[in-house]
Design brief:
This protein is mainly alpha-helical. The chain is 55% helix and 6% strand. Strand 1, helix 1 and strand 2 form a beta-alpha-beta unit. Bound molecules: tryptophan.
Length: 361
C-alpha cells in the first residue's frame, strides 16, 4: 500500500510555535525522510469559514501568510502538494455523502468541537457547517487516501471520527476508503505548547503566541515577558520546572550542544532544571538562554520568508499547481466513492441495460 500523508491548517492567522512543534517541524522531517509516496498539505480555508463566516477577508488574507510560513519552514513544493481546500469542490461532494453516516449526537460529543463551541459562545445556536466540520475533515483525509495524518493532540477526535466514517462506509458499500492513522509529535512538550502567558494553549485568540514570522526583537521581548513560576520571586528561591512555560519551551526546542555554545556551565537541560529547582538560578538567565535557542531555530525561517515575500506570484503559482494536482486525486476518489455507492448512473452500463430489458417487455 502506498504511504500517503495529508494534513493541514486553518488560515486564520500566521503560524506560531505551537503549530511548529505540534506538527509543522515533523512534516518537514517526514517530507525529507523520503519514506512517503505522496504528501498533501491543505490550507483549510473552507473549514476556517465555519467559524469566521462574517470575516472572509481574514481568511483571504491569511492563505498567503500560511503558504509563506510553510515554504519558509522547508515544505518543498516538489515533494509536498500544497493546496487550497475551497478550490476542490469534490471535497464537498464527499462531505455530503458522509453526512448520512454520522449522527448529530455523535458530532456533539466530539471533545474538540465541544470546547470550540464553548469558546465561541455558539451554545445557543451552533452553525450547521461548524458542527459538521469533522465530517468535512474526514473528506479531506479520505479524498487523498491518506494513511498518515501528522497533527497536534487536539485533532485526535477528528481522526477518530474519520476512522468511524471509513469503517461505516466500507461496511455498507464495500472496501473503498483507507483508514488513516494519527502521527503525534514524539516529544511530550510538543503535544500542546502553552502560551507565553502560561495558559494551556498557544492560540491566536488568546494573544499569547510567538509567531514564526515575528522579528528577532519581537521574539526577544515576548520571551523576556514570559510567565514562569509565580513563587520563584528571588533568584535564591527554589523554582518549579513542571508546568513552567519557559522550561516547557526548552523541552520542545533545546539541544545539548546549545549549552556548550550559550551556557557552558550546564551540560544539558536536566542539569539546568536541577539548579532551578534547588534555587540560585534566576528567570532572566533562563529566558536569555531560551531566547538564544529560539532565535537559532527561527532566524533561517525568517530569512527564507523574506526571500519568498519578494516573489508572491511564484507563491501563488505553487498554490495553483498544487491545487490542480490535489483536485485530480480528490476527483478520482470521488469517482471510486460514487461507483461504490452505485450512484454513477451514466457510466453504469449494467444499470442502463437492465432498464432497457425491463422496459422493453
Ligand atoms: N482542523 C485542522 C486545524 O484546525 C485543519 C485541518 C483541516 C486538517 N483539514 C484537515 C488537519 C485534515 C489534518 C487533516 O488546524
Amino acid at each position: 500500500m502506498k504511504k500517503v500523508i495529508l494534513t493541514g491548517d486553518r488560515p486564520t492567522g500566521r503560524l506560531h510555535l505551537g503549530h511548529y512543534v505540534g506538527s509543522l517541524r515533523q512534516r518537514i522531517e517526514l517530507q525529507n525522510s523520503g519514506e512517503y509516496d505522496e504528501i498533501y498539505i491543505m490550507i483549510a480555508d473552507a473549514q476556517a469559514l465555519t467559524d469566521n463566516m462574517e470575516n472572509p477577508e481574514k481568511v483571504r488574507q491569511n492563505i498567503v501568510e500560511v503558504a509563506l510560513d510553510y515554504l519558509s519552514c522547508g515544505l518543498d513544493p516538489e515533494k509536498s502538494t500544497i493546496h487550497i481546500q475551497s478550490q476542490i469542490p469534490e471535497l464537498f461532494e464527499l462531505t455530503a455523502y458522509y453526512m448520512n453516516l454520522v449522527t448529530v449526537s455523535r458530532l456533539q460529543r466530539n471533545p474538540t468541537v465541544k470546547a470550540e463551541i464553548q469558546l465561541r459562545n455558539f451554545e445557543a445556536s451552533i452553525p450547521v457547517g461548524f458542527l459538521a466540520y469533522p465530517i468535512s475533515q474526514a473528506a479531506d483525509i479520505t479524498a487523498f487516501k491518506a494513511t498518515t495524518v501528522p497533527v497536534g493532540e487536539d485533532q485526535q477526535p477528528m481522526l477518530e471520527q474519520t476512522r468511524e466514517i471509513v469503517r461505516k462506509f466500507n461496511s455498507i458499500y464495500g472496501e473503498t476508503l483507507i483508514e488513516p492513522e494519527t502521527l503525534l509529535p514524539d516529544n511530550k512538550a510538543c503535544l500542546r505548547l502553552p502560551g507565553i502567558d502560561g495558559k494551556a494553549k498557544m492560540s491566536k485568540s488568546l494573544g499569547n503566541c510567538i509567531y514564526l514570522s515575528d522579528s528577532e526583537e519581537e521574539v526577544r521581548k515576548k520571551v523576556m515577558s514570559m510567565f514562569t513560576d509565580p513563587n520563584h520571586l528571588r533568584v535564591s528561591d527554589p523554582g518549579q520546572v513542571e508546568g513552567n512555560p519557559v522550561f516547557i519551551y526548552l523541552d520542545a526546542f533545546c539541544r545539548d550542544e546549545q549549552f556548550e555554545r550559550y551556557l557552558p556551565e550546564y551540560k544539558n537541560l536536566d542539569e539546568m532544571k536541577a539548579h532551578y529547582r534547588r534555587g540560585g538560578l534566576g528567570d532572566v538567565k533562563v529566558k536569555k538562554f531560551l531566547n538564544a535557542v529560539l532565535q537559532e531555530e527561527l532566524e533561517p525561517i525568517r530569512k527564507k520568508r523574506r526571500e519568498f515575500e519578494k516573489d508572491i506570484p511564484y507563491v501563488y503559482e505553487i498554490l495553483r499547481k498544487g491545487t490542480e494536482k490535489a483536485r485530480e486525486v480528490a476527483a478520482s476518489t470521488l469517482a471510486d466513492v460514487k461507483r461504490a455507492m452505485k450512484i454513477n448512473y451514466f457510466e453504469d452500463a449494467e444499470l442502463i441495460n437492465e432498464h432497457i430489458r425491463k422496459f422493453s417487455k
